[in-house]
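This part of the workshop introduces the protein records we will be handling. An example says more than a description, so a record of this kind follows:
>
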Amino acid sequence: MESWKIMTNQDKIVFLTGKWNEIVNLEHHKDCECHFYINEIYSYGEPPKYEVQYYGELYDDYEESDFQCFATHQEAERFLIYLLLDAVTKENKWALEVLKDKSFEQDQIDRAKRIVNICKDTTLDYIMFESKKVLEKIINKE
């Protein structure tokens, strides 16, 4: 993987949607699970706003009622990166818990092993830490 610090936002989004796609395809695949959007909205003669959208069901922490608008495309990209990291990280945490707990069915254990394998080439702890700082800046308008 190219160094995270020198990747463009678009490169990060492409990388993370690839990881998400790999994880989603392990169990079930609905096409909507693999699409994330930044929608440019023009209204009332005002400058455009950029809305981050996701209509899938697997990552249920961001639903249509949660959609957020941002003043710049770059802010929307940063927020989308955060969402993707959160989704991948939550799946990875679930997988690590499954591997610690011996009470799961073998198919769940196998899926958990594959998720951990998909995530192992990313430095998710570092990436999540950096993304949380970025998100805080966006929210606080710094």
